[in-house]
Amino acid sequence: MKPSVLLVNPWIYDFAAYDYWMKPLGLMYMASYLRENGLEVRLVDCLDGYATQAASMAVTPRRPPRRKPGGHGKFLRQRIVAPPALDMIARPYHRYGIDPEIFTAMVRSVEKPRAILATSMMTYWYPGVIDAISILKEIFPEIPVILGGIYTTLCPEHARAHTGADYVLAGAGEGYVDLILEKIMGLSLSYRPDSKNLDALPYPAWDLLSHPDQLPVLTSRGCPCRCPYCATKILNRTFRRRDPRRVVDEIAHWRKTLGVKNFSFYDDALLVRPEEMAIPLLKDIIIRHLDTVFHCPNGLHLSEITPYIATLLFRAGFRTLRFGLETTDRDRQRALGGKVENVHFEQATAYLREAGYEADDIAVYLLCGLPGQSAGEIRESIRYVRSHDARPILAEYSPIPGTALWDAARQSSPYPLAEEPLFHNNSLLPCAHPTLTTLEYHAMKRLSRGN
Fold first, then answer.
1. The pTM is what?
2. Count of domains in the chain?
């Protein structure tokens, strides 16, 4: 019998959460690496509302959450008591995901593993990680729990001190395959993933999902830009890309084997240097007639949109487009890296409309609550975007340890950001300028929606 590993995707604990094509991509890559080394892999995904329907247990599962045809939608949720540090926020706090009783039953139903791997996402979602590990330790007290992900990479010391994990790994998971197999599990390593060649990696183990309504596809890691608010340079220090035709091969594989029609791209630089990736990728998708729909919830680069690329995007089936404008203030645009100017936005929206997109299809992220950013600047940015027939989306700033804006964030915030990751929560607007009051913020939210 093969030795087994249990993989766990913990809950989200927050004031608000919505599934914008979210899947545990890194965890599923780790599942493939472990399979390549001869291990049996099982998954318990706390965010998968469909997983409860397949489990045989005494707890009565709730209905799956409402989903959109494109593969996004609501999570299951339960109202819970907010941590004391967040008492000042007069909003309901929730556990997003399956019931703890069902999580416990699902974990108990698996064969005793040799190790447990758990992932983590936003730094301020760590209470869900702690609760999941607590249950795992109660059921399998002698089994090592290995924790990785974004939170552990950005706040490793906090994770070591508070989560209860036996091992806390910072950085990309494939760098720890030998540690997990040889030193922790006492097994022989037969396959070591080569992260320098992304095309050499096995496909993520998406067959483990109970209901693959959409799948994310990796085209690159890292980003050539150096936006001071972004953690990409910390999470991936170099920019590496796949062969675009190999990316389309993977899309075609999942379309055929799992019947998935909706795919998402979360890459930070999908459109950067388009002759290397975007253009051959889009042309190959069109040529193959894959009957697929694509979603880009991350902020695509406006400056790369040309009439040709806009037409390719439309013909290839890219229906969810999100772009990063950040602000229309020219001084702040330069301070944020200078990758976009207002003229890029104006040109891009015109090209996209000519290609066939409607105004509501062109959504633009505007940062809100940056250190030193006045409410007037945000309001003017909203008006500007709406005046050019595009849809503004306020992206509330979350301070991230290790980024270039971190020191300014700490200085401008009334919260002890370095000591408590809960205060990174963007619902707090933790670095808001004095002019950005709660009333003003809600007024700007209504303005962004056209109300």
1. 0.94
2. 2
